[in-house]
Write a structure and sequence with these properties.
This protein is 21% helix and 33% strand. By secondary structure, the chain is of the alpha+beta class. It has four domains: 44 residues; 122 residues, no CATH class; 125 residues, Immunoglobulin-like (Sandwich), CATH 2.60.40.3880; 147 residues, Immunoglobulin-like (Sandwich). Strands 16, 17, 18, 19, 21 and 24 form a six-stranded antiparallel beta sheet that branches. Strands 20, 22, 23, 25, 26 and 27 form a six-stranded mixed beta sheet that branches. Strands 10, 11, 12, 14 and 15 form a five-stranded antiparallel beta sheet that branches. Helix 5 runs antiparallel to helix 6.
Length: 560
């Protein structure tokens, strides 16, 4: 007796199910047979140290790429972004992304970004339909091109008289809207975009086929076009051109106009082109005779969790200035301007300050043998910047210009030991309580006035008998899991490089420094009695005994 085909198929499926259903049961029996002994942990096995997860930062940048700018980022930019390997590069990319779209590069306010975010918020508020408004076609169009010049809205659908181009005649439609733009740069003029809600759920999609809104299209004898009502065409003729399912136009069909509309829709939804700033700029060369000479020192310390404090110290020799006598005083007047810009040209910070020096006439001769200092402290994000400073002597008209590239370090990596600049200062003293937190030459609760090295590459100089003060901070010390305190040593080494004679060899540990966290502030002063004229090298080495890391910044100075 031959078994029917359906029966054989059913029997085969049942055997297959029983065969595979037994696999997990067998695995469970095997686990039970192994017993608790096989699962016992190795008492000598220690857990691996946990690595700091970067998923949070990566997911933030992924969200930026996929949810914040997908409508305006070009394919080339997206491909370039995906090749970046660290968050510093990604942060620089995001900054550059907005900067090149800023219509006013020298302005700290980015009008393009502000308008984009305003349109995005409007789209989310007005066009959401089971998804964020920016993801809908209407939201997409609004974000890229703004409010249309006019909207023909049919929020409930219903009776509709077709245009002659659509074949004429009356029908019933789904809800739909027609947006009209008089002009879209690079796309065309007198443009119409039709959005149809075929599900009556509020989700209007961009429809190339204007026949999509016809709710009676598939109902026999309902909603005929003019030619269909006259018996000259039938509903079966709709869509025979392969593009739209509207009725035959009462005018001659123009295939080119259909192609143009297809191109216009594609262009309207494409990311806008990146503005070209032009790589060729006019080069101007200015030769200054008898310029005002001055020196600049830039230091770095940790600001908050994401930024660095960047004190910029300007030093000018008093003999470089012109003095004008009045009422028994000699007056010098300076105008100082400074600007920091990113690599993309974005202005990150400026300072503009008039400076005045008033010296009693009888002290002028001694005064011109010294220098005057000014300091401006800015808060910056990690990255590379260009620093430009202009200093003008108002009385003589002499002008000095300084330009240099600086790299602001990233102190935010909790698992990497880092240090501020090692500062050699001629003044280091505690601040009065009311001065803590601001002012010139202020670092934390100390007033620290650095010595500025000359611009020729020579080290900073101190005069014999002058105290040399050392200031530095160390960041991101690891905490012991048991004590929740750091364990580190600090070694100070000062050597006369000419004779090889050590001036200071000092070692300290964190237990001697009191109750500290993951940040150390190091202060040390060198006695003038031990500093003969000559060249010296300072090394401060910090050893993190918990994380097994060390850093050893070095600085040089000269005693004359």
């Amino acid at each position: 007796m031959t078994m029917p085909v359906d029966a054989r198929r059913t029997l085969f499926l049942m055997m297959t199910y029983l065969l595979f259903a037994g696999i997990p049961l067998a695995a469970q029996d095997s686990d039970k047979a192994a017993g608790p002994t096989s699962r016992q942990e190795d008492p000598l096995q220690r857990p691996l140290p946990k690595r700091k997860s970067t998923r949070g930062a990566e997911s933030a940048y992924k969200k930026w790429l996929d949810e914040e700018v997908p409508l305006i980022i070009t394919d080339a930019e997206r491909a370039a972004f995906k090749k970046l390997t660290n968050d510093q590069e990604r942060a620089a990319f995001v900054e550059h992304f907005w900067d090149i779209r800023n219509p006013y590069p020298d302005s700290e306010q980015n009008e393009y970004k502000d308008e984009y975010e305003r349109r995005r918020a409007y789209a989310n508020e007005h066009f959401a339909a089971g998804m964020p408004g920016w993801k809908t076609d209407r939201g997409h169009m609004y974000i890229l091109h703004g409010k249309p010049d006019s909207i023909d809205s049919h929020p409930a659908g219903g009776p509709y008289m077709r245009t002659a181009e659509e074949g004429g005649g009356e029908t019933v439609t789904y809800p739909f809207e027609v947006w009209r733009y008089r002009n879209l740069d690079g796309i065309g003029q007198e443009l119409e975009f039709e959005f149809v809600d075929t599900c009556s759920c509020g989700e209007y999609h961009l429809a190339f086929d204007r026949g999509e809104k016809d709710a009676a299209a598939k109902i026999p004898n309902a909603g005929p076009t003019d030619l269909e009502a006259m018996g000259r065409r039938s509903k079966a003729d709709r869509g025979r051109n392969g593009v739209e399912t509207t009725g035959e136009s009462l005018f001659a069909n123009n295939p080119q106009s259909i192609f143009d509309r297809m191109m216009q829709q594609a262009q309207a939804l494409a990311p806008p082109p990146v503005p070209e700033r032009g790589n060729r700029e006019e080069v101007k060369v200015t030769v200054r005779v008898n310029p005002l000479m001055f020196d600049v020192r830039v230091d770095f310390a940790k600001g908050d969790a994401r930024t660095a404090l960047v004190p910029i110290t300007i030093q000018v020799a008093n003999r470089e200035l012109m003095y004008v006598g009045k009422s028994g005083l000699e007056h010098a007047s300076l105008e100082l301007f400074g600007r920091l810009t990113t690599l993309s040209g974005h202005v990150a910070g400026t300072f503009d300050e008039p400076l005045h020096l008033d010296v009693p006439a009888e002290m002028l001769q001694k005064f011109v043998g010294n220098v005057s200092l000014y300091q401006e402290a800015l808060t910056l994000h990690p990255g590379r910047y260009r620093l430009d400073i202009v200093l003008k002597d108002v009385n003589s008209g002499k002008i000095g210009v300084f330009s240099r590239s600086i790299t602001v370090p990233d102190f935010a990596a909790d698992d990497k030991l880092a240090a501020s600049t090692l500062i050699l200062a001629d003044l280091m003293e505690p601040l009065p309580v009311h001065d803590i937190g601001g002012g010139r030459f202020v670092l934390g609760d100390q007033r620290v006035r650095p010595r500025v090295p000359p611009g020729n590459g020579a080290p900073a100089t101190f005069t014999r008998g002058q105290k040399v003060n050392l200031w530095m901070q160390a960041y991101n010390l690891a905490l012991d899991e048991t004590t929740r305190k750091p364990s580190a040593t600090v070694e100070y080494h000062v050597v006369n490089t000419g004779t090889g004679t050590p001036v200071l060899d000092l070692k300290q540990n964190t237990e001697q420094m009191g109750n500290i966290g993951n940040q150390l502030t190091l202060r040390q002063s060198l006695s003038p009695d031990n500093l003969d004229p000559g060249m010296y090298e300072v090394t401060i080495k910090v050893n993190d005994l918990v994380a097994k890391q060390s850093i050893a910044p070095v600085a040089k100075f000269e005693v004359k």
